[in-house]
Amino acid sequence: MQGMSERQYAAHVGLSRGAIQKAKTAERLVLFTDGSIDAAASDARRAETTDPSKTRKPPARRLKPVPEAAVSAVGETLREQGIAAPAVGGSTTFLQARTANEVMKAQERRLRLSRLKGELVDRARAETLMFRLAREERDACVTWPARAAALMAAELTAALGDGGEVEAALMQKVLEAHVRAQLDSLAEIRVGLG
Predict the structure, then answer these.
(1) What is the mean pLDDT of each run of 10 residues along the chain (194 residues)?
(2) Cβ(85)–Cβ(75) under 8 Å?
(3) In terms of domain of life, where is this protein from (predicted)?
């Protein structure tokens, strides 16, 4: 056999064997003397004799490119769960993306359930409450020297005995300076909930 059989040529051009047989009887194919099909010559003849409006071309599938952020999120989710993930820039299979999607949905449901059970709180609300609590603590510390200075001065005067006396105003000034220094050092600490 010098050329291709009907089946081989049908596979070569992507048509059915019946379509090749019709083209053969319509003499749109070039045949060798043994009856086999000359592929190159037949391709050229078919291109010349076939009406382009009647050809069936498979619709071109236009796939949207997947953003790199989405691919990396899939890989990150899979790695968090201990599942093998493709390298960055590698191709992610549909099964891997679907698995990552199911894992993320399960995580989201778990978070929603924890919130409903009262195990989780709203971050903004927690920050507001923390700020309010810190402000109340600061205010209590700032007003403490005025309340405690007179009591401390009286106790120190009693402890010194006959020889000395501690003034309440001076005691208050010293206490306020130390409390403010302590509050300034505490102000440098930043609480982060994230």
Answers:
(1) 89 89 89 90 86 67 68 75 68 73 84 84 85 86 82 79 77 84 77 62
(2) yes
(3) Bacteria
